[in-house]
């Protein structure tokens, strides 16, 4: 048992840390999010040069063959810098689906392009009625000769505005909430029949609503088997959830540390407010929440993610627990910063907003709590047998 | 990062399992379970039987001790496995006072004679220790303690009163913090660490009954007790340093993760038998959610503990972070004892599940769950209250 990084992982960690330090100071970040594009293509090129865009991809396609721990390292550091470039949507989410489901031909043509930074993808799955249910898909795809015709609407698609390609989930068969009958299509973002409404999110990232009207795509655009995409979607969203949790842990560390510093420096009644026990205990509780969040992230990262039951359980446990930590640490950070906490100008509110939105991403605390309970408590049957042991 | 067990770890795990299976006496398990359930006091033999068995086997009674002092010197993973397996098999836990507390102080700060005199008895479980720290006027403010030790020739003359001395009714020895210099500049500077034979004339033990009716703790009085100067650990007036060292050790075992896990399993079983709204309680969404919340917290704490263990093995001893384990571990123990009591509804009421004419009432599993809940309110108070632990973290970790 060890919680150390390997030599390669340490290098990766140092690399991302220096990227954030050198290219993502607070003023630079403010300028990036205020720009029309809402991100900086120059940074993306640098990710490519550093090899970051290849982290999770197999070596056969030019990637680094990284696993959950490697993604955690990248995302944790990105969290500390509130890096807005669409790494999670493109590399982890869409990239994960392509790796999982793509044909040899698709993988050979797309993955190297993602790694070199030429292609960015986004995954359009959520719909206005679906909330967090990945199986709830109304967008339809109907076979018409050699083409599919897609119609529907996709909600809050992160990174779509920066993407050259979209992966769209659509129903090719079955009822609206059936797990079978879902198919993925990979299409050019500029295709006729796609309308993107781009907008900034409350935490200064970018997302889009996507209207799909008679979008014609060839059979070659199908990613994986027709009707059979659900399991892969669930798996890759689970992996992406771990990535989001890692980003959150990075953010929580900044919130905890910067709030502690702030309280040491802020003077009222002639002394530092950190001299008050009521403040000290709140700071300690923030630290405990942060450590617990980090621990359950480690639990998820080191779980057997190739076993789908273990993976589901670990991911939902982590997301539910970290969601709780986000709320406590985030709200406490704002409270202890007092007036400085609620202004836009000071950075703490930005970290709080991002952490809170990660709380929603891929399912909030209640959603994952319910999933966790379903997975862990369905096996317990009622038994009349008395249990003759005490509980201590 | 890797938490998968290696081949050797798996081999170790089956070795432990096998050892427990063939060496833990079933009568002991049954007897302790039944006494717990009925709120009967555990005997000295109940508390030490397993310790004695482990003491005869490669130092397994002292998983953390270095081999040179007769311990097992388990790796962090082995310690974790050992605790898990013992909890799963409902083995009686080893009293911490010798193994986790005074033992490490003796082999770290004691002289050769003290090591030779005391370590073997602690390892074997033959000698029963208790802790003389708290006093009626010194709880959280431990350094204000007043029990005095005045040097007269070859002896210290000890006078004063200790309290909350857990299991002093069985103890052969007590390790005490005593004031040797009442005029020191700071209260911490006048304290010494003294080992006292409980059979010495002038030592009196009086029981304190807890709110569940149990007798775990005592008042211990010292009336002109003559203690040989050889029983001083380390240097005079340096006791506070040793005490702090000991407290950090005490906290590292205090999380009780494996035992809380086992307790949650039992609650799930109980809640499968109990009915609410015509369905097993385990199906009740509110109850289910509470169980799940406890599980998540415990799962996180398990990894916090593993991270601490891994850090320990990297040469850094348990530091102030162990306060975190104490706070969270006891939070969960309290949540779990409460859930167990809640699970049995009305049958939390009958005291020890026994009628005035000594007949049992209610389901077997319900007996004394409320007693345990009431008893466990102690957990966030002992070993340095959870508020004091927060003060420690604030000062030592956050630098406030």
Please characterize this protein's 3D structure.
- The complex is a heterodimer of chains A (about 400) and B (about 400).
- Chain A is an alpha+beta fold and about 400 residues long.
- Helix content of chain A is about 50%, strand content about 15%.
- Chain A is built from twelve helices and ten strands.
- Chain A has helices at about 5-25, 25-35, 40-50, 70-80, 85-100, 105-115, 230-265, 275-300, 310-335, 340, 350-360, 365-375, and strands spanning about 120-125, 140-145, 145-160, 165-170, 180-190, 195-200, 205-220, 220-225, 265-270, 270.
- In chain A, helix 1 runs parallel beside helix 4, helix 4 (about 70-80) packs across helix 7 (about 230-265) and helix 9 (about 310-335) runs antiparallel to helix 11 (about 350-360).
- The longest helix of chain A is centred in the middle third of the chain and has 36 residues, at about 230-265.
- With about 400 residues, chain B is α+β, with helices and mostly antiparallel strands.
- Chain B folds into three domains: about 5-95, Orthogonal Bundle (Butyryl-Coa Dehydrogenase, subunit A, domain 1); about 130-240, Butyryl-CoA Dehydrogenase, subunit A, domain 2, CATH 2.40.110; about 255-395, Up-down Bundle (Butyryl-CoA Dehydrogenase, subunit A, domain 3), CATH 1.20.140.10.
- Helices cover about 45% and strands about 15% of the residues of chain B.
- Chain B has a four-stranded mixed sheet.
- The relative contact order of chain B is 0.09.
- The model of chain B has no long low-confidence stretch (mean pLDDT about 95).
- The interface between A and B is large, with 51 and 65 residues.
Q: Superfamily at the CATH H level of the largest domain in chain A? A: Butyryl-CoA Dehydrogenase, subunit A, domain 3
CATH fold-type name of the largest domain in chain A: Butyryl-CoA Dehydrogenase, subunit A, domain 3
Alpha plus pi helix count of chain A? 12
Number of helices of chain B: 12
CATH domain class of the largest domain in chain B:
Mainly Alpha
* Largest interchain contact: A-B, 51 and 65 residues
Question: What shape does the CA trace of chain A take?
Answer: globular
Q: What is the alpha-carbon Rg of chain A in Å?
A: 22 Å
Sheet with most strands: strand arrangement of chain B:
1-4-5-8
Low-confidence stretches of chain A: 379-392
Q: Helix proportion of residues of chain A, in percent?
A: 40-55%
Strand order of the largest sheet of chain A: 1-4-5-8
Structural shape of chain B? globular
Mean pLDDT figure of chain A: 95
CATH fold category name of the largest domain in chain B: Butyryl-CoA Dehydrogenase, subunit A, domain 3
Q: Structural class per helix/strand content of chain B?
A: alpha+beta
**What would you give as the CATH superfamily of the largest domain in chain B?**
Butyryl-CoA Dehydrogenase, subunit A, domain 3
Report how far apart the termini of chain B are. Answer: 32 Å
Total count of strands of chain A: 10
């Amino acid at each position: 048992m060890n919680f150390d990084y390997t030599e390669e992982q340490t290098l990766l960690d140092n690399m991302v840390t220096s990227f954030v330090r050198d290219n993502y100071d607070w003023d630079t970040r403010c300028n990036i999010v205020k720009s029309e594009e809402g991100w900086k293509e120059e940074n993306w090129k640098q990710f490519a040069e550093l090899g970051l865009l290849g982290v999770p991809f197999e070596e056969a396609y030019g990637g680094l063959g990284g696993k959950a721990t490697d993604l955690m390292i990248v995302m944790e550091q990105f969290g500390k810098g509130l890096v807005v470039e669409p790494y999670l949507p493109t590399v982890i989410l869409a990239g994960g689906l392509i790796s999982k489901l793509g044909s040899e031909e698709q993988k050979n043509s797309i993955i190297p392009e993602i790694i070199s930074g030429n292609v960015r993808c986004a995954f359009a799955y959520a719909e206005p009625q679906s909330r967090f249910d990945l199986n709830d898909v109304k967008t339809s795809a109907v076979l018409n000769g050699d083409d599919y015709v897609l119609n529907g609407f996709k909600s809050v698609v992160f990174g779509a505005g920066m993407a050259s390609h979209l992966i769209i989930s659509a129903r090719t068969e079955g009822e609206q909430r059936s797990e079978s009958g879902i198919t993925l299509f990979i299409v050019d973002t500029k295709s006729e029949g796609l309308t993107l409404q781009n907008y900034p999110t409350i935490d200064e990232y970018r997302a889009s609503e996507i209207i799909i009207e008679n979008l014609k795509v060839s059979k070659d655009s199908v990613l994986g088997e027709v009707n059979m995409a659900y399991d892969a979607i669930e798996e890759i969203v689970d992996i992406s959830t771990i990535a989001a949790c890692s980003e959150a842990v990075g953010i929580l560390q900044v919130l905890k540390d910067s709030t502690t510093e702030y309280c040491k420096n802020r003077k009222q009644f002639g002394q530092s407010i950190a001299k008050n026990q009521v403040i000290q205990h709140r700071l300690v509780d923030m630290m405990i929440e942060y450590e617990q969040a980090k621990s359950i992230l480690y639990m998820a990262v080191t779980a057997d993610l190739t076993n789908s039951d273990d993976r589901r359980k670990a991911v939902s446990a982590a997301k539910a627990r970290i969601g709780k930590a986000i709320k406590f640490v985030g709200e406490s950070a704002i409270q202890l910063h007092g007036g400085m906490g609620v202004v836009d100008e000071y950075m703490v509110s930005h970290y709080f907003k991002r952490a809170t939105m990660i709380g929603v991403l891929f399912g909030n605390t209640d959603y994952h709590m319910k999933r966790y309970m379903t997975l862990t408590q369905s096996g317990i049957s009622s038994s009349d047998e008395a249990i003759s042991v005490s509980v201590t | 990062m890797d938490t998968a067990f290696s081949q050797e770890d798996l081999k170790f795990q089956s070795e432990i399992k096998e050892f427990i299976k063939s060496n833990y006496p079933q009568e002991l398990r049954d007897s302790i379970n039944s006494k717990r359930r009925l709120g009967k006091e555990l005997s000295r033999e109940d508390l030490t039987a397993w310790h004695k068995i482990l003491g005869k086997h490669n130092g397994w009674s002292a998983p953390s001790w270095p081999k040179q002092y007769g311990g097992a010197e388990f790796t962090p993973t082995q310690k974790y496995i050992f605790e898990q397996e013992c909890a799963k098999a409902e083995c009686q836990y080893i009293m911490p006072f010798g193994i986790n507390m005074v033992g490490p102080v003796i082999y770290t700060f004691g002289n050769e004679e003290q090591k030779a005199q005391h370590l073997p008895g602690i390892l074997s479980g033959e000698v029963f220790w208790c802790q003389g720290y708290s006093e009626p006027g010194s709880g959280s403010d431990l350094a204000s303690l007043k029990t005095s030790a005045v040097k007269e020739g070859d002896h210290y003359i000890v006078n004063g009163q200790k309290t909350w001395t857990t299991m002093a009714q069985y103890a052969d020895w007590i390790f005490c913090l005593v004031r040797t210099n009442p005029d020191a500049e700071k209260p911490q500077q006048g304290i010494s660490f003294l080992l006292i034979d409980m059979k010495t004339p002038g030592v009196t033990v009086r029981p304190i009954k807890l709110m569940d009716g149990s007798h775990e703790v005592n008042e211990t009085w010292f009336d002109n007790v003559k203690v040989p100067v050889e029983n001083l650990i380390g240097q005079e007036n340096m006791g506070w340093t040793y005490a702090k060292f000991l407290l950090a050790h005490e906290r590292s075992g205090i999380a009780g993760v494996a035992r809380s896990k086992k307790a949650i399993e039992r609650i799930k079983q109980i809640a499968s038998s109990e009915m609410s709204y015509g369905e097993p309680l385990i199906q009740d969404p509110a109850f289910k959610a509470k169980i799940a919340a406890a599980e998540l917290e415990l799962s996180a704490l398990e990894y916090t503990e593993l991270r601490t263990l891994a850090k320990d093995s990297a040469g850094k001893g348990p530091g102030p972070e162990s306060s975190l384990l104490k706070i969270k571990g006891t939070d969960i123990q309290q949540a779990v004892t409460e859930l167990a009591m809640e699970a049995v509804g009305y049958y939390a009421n009958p005291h020890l599940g026994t009628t005035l004419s000594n007949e049992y009432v209610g389901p077997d599993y319900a007996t004394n769950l409320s007693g345990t809940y009431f008893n466990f309110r102690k957990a966030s108070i002992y070993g340095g209250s959870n508020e004091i632990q927060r003060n420690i973290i604030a000062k030592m970790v956050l630098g406030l």
